[in-house]
Design goal:
The chain contains five helices and three strands. Helix content is 46%, strand content 12%. Strands 1-2-3 form a three-stranded parallel beta sheet, covered by helices on one side. The protein is an alpha/beta fold. Helix 4 links the parallel strand 2 and strand 3.
């Protein structure tokens, strides 16, 4: 998960632990890119906050997609996390290769539903 707000990071970590998911939480787009570039094979899903301090979640997602194409890698599922439910923003997310759009606040139930949609869990 890529989330710059410490409280949201703690909440996401607690949800992932409860769901028995191996997860990494980073605070910036550059940290997300480094994680994906160094360990792409261990990730299935990226929760990407759109409002990051160093680059937008859109920019980071676009960079991830370019890295995957360049290295002939299967694309990770990327879910945008945002505080606003804006149809234009949702279309922007899809246009850079994100798979899903989720508004905050995030709940454990919504994460479970997303994992089921992407067939990433047995729950």
């Amino acid at each position: 998960a890529v989330e710059d707000e410490p409280i949201n990071q703690m909440v996401l970590k607690a949800f992932f632990k409860t769901l028995e998911l191996n997860a990494k939480v980073v605070a910036t787009g550059h940290e997300a890119l480094a994680a994906v570039q160094n360990e792409h094979h261990i990730y299935d899903l990226v929760f990407m906050d759109l409002g990051l301090p160093d680059m937008t979640g859109l920019e980071a997602s676009k960079e991830i997609r370019q890295f995957e194409q360049k290295n002939n890698l299967d694309p990770l599922y990327i879910c945008a996390l945002t505080a606003t439910d804006d149809a234009k923003k949702q279309q922007e997310c899809l246009s850079v290769g994100m798979n899903q759009f989720m508004t905050k606040p995030i709940t454990m139930e919504r994460i479970e539903q997303l994992l089921q949609v992407f067939h990433l869990t047995d729950h």
